[in-house]
Amino acid sequence: MSQYLIMQRLMYTKQQPTLMRSYLLFIVLLTNLTVFGQNRAPVQRLDDTQIATDGIDTIVSRLMRAAKVDGLQLAIINNNNLVYQKAYGFKDKAQGTMLDTNTIMYAASFSKAVFAYINMRLVQKGLIDLDKPLVEYLKKPLHEYGNYEELEKDERWKKITPRMCLNHTTGLPNVWWMNVTTGMRDTTLRNRLYFEPGSRYAYSGEGFKLLQRIEQVYLGKDLETLAREEVFAPAGMQRTSYIWQSAFDANAATGYDKEGKPGGKVRSGSAVGAGSMLTTISDFSRFITYVLSGKGLSRTTFREMIRPQVRINSIYEFPTMLEETTHRDDKINLSYGLGWGVIKTPYGPAFFKGGHDDCWRNYTISFPDKKTGIVIMCNSGNGERIFKELLEKLIGDTFTPWEWDRFTPYNVQAK
Q1: Residue 221, Cα to own-chain centre: how many angstroms?
Q2: Cα–Cα distance, 352 to 112 (Å, whole number)
Q3: Which of 82, 267, 301, 307 is the most buried (most CB within 10 A)?
Q4: What gap in Å lies between CA 162 and CA 276, rounded to an integer?
């Protein structure tokens, strides 16, 4: 742990007796030494250069301080194995408690990557066909699955398939009550189609929700059960759930907005494949290594998951249906696979996923040919402002479409 973070912790204990403060400092230093003892080997970048673990610590601490990032968890994968893992900053600023690698974080849209993997498992088992229209899976009228009264009136919805849901080409909005061009809340809206299914890309949480609701009835299993059977248990993700668990209470992070104000803990009350998952950096990095190692999916199924399914020409990911297009990302062939964004690089294909909420910022990217990946999870609204530099300096990733993702660096004026 950097001197900066040690001093932050001591600031919250300055009213305590001297002996207590000395004891806390000893514990912090001891914890730091233990963490570094587990991460002594240098990390291999994509270009085969190396970075020492103390160099990683220095870079992360400097960037967090510069961008006012309250807390961050980091994991780096080399040769399909976890080689670096550490937590930085606060779990709870008011209490003066610090993050560790088993602290529960809100996964946000990391949830979609896991949901997509579950679906690929179901496809592999022959339980779901990616190209079979959802209407053929119905066991009751569509409006009984959710707020689909408006959608049901539009015959085009019957063209929607699981593939379209997973590659964001359904024509449904991201969130039904959010304006698709301004991103502003508008409860006068309805859950409906905005374009012909399959005709273009537009990020859609509602597409994932529709697929989940129909699958749960069709298969007779809820998402949490499917997740435990298909991913959580096989991958060893013991502190991950789509629903808040009482066991999470003892070690869960508080989120902080861009001004550093607390937004509280996320306590998901129902399983939503589009965004309710709670996890730790330890668990989610297990998931990434599990996927990279080819476990659970055949090579053919894995390749289908990360194959470019639809080209992306939008200038930004959000708001989801801006008309402006760009050739900016042609060089990386920015596309979407099934649950993952995909790009081409000099090191082979890469697949990525972000997770975004007011007080939470997450990102992961993996390069299967190089057997390298990185996972970043932040309980801070400022987290994305250091992603570009972290990716470049820690693993040599200069390919992530940071402008499209709006990962505007802390030292650049946001557009």
Answers
A1: 24
A2: 11
A3: 82
A4: 20
